[in-house]
Write a structure and sequence with these properties.
Layout (H helix, E strand, L loop, with lengths): L4 E6 L7 H10 L4 E8 L5 E9 L2 H11 L3 E2 L2 E2 L1 E4 L5 H4 L3
Antiparallel strand pairs: 1-3, 1-6, 2-3, 4-5
Length: about 90
């Protein structure tokens, strides 16, 4: 069985919802496990987040298909999340 893989997504438009980000990944044919957009203490988007995908193959495809994809007036940054990211370790 494949191990889940986290990708970092940067340059997310502030108004984008987690459900919209998930839809973007699903419409690209990816197997999404979970989506999390980081928010500040006022619950406003910080413009980045993480998507957990079902496999390394999905992560590779996400990077290939969605990195630099224009969403609104911004180009998303999609790459493998660092394993030591404190955002991924925090209890939410």
């Amino acid at each position: 069985m494949s191990e889940h893989v986290n990708v970092f997504v940067g340059n997310i438009p502030y108004e984008m919802l987690e459900s919209e980000l998930e839809t973007l990944f699903l419409e690209s044919g990816l197997n999404v496990v979970s989506v999390m957009i980081e928010v500040d203490e006022r619950e406003r988007s910080r413009g980045f987040g993480f998507v957990t995908l079902a496999s390394a193959e999905d992560a590779d495809q996400a990077i290939e298909k969605l990195n630099r994809k224009e969403v609104g007036k911004l180009k998303l940054r999609v790459n493998l999340a660092r394993a030591d990211s404190h955002y991924l370790k925090a209890d939410k």
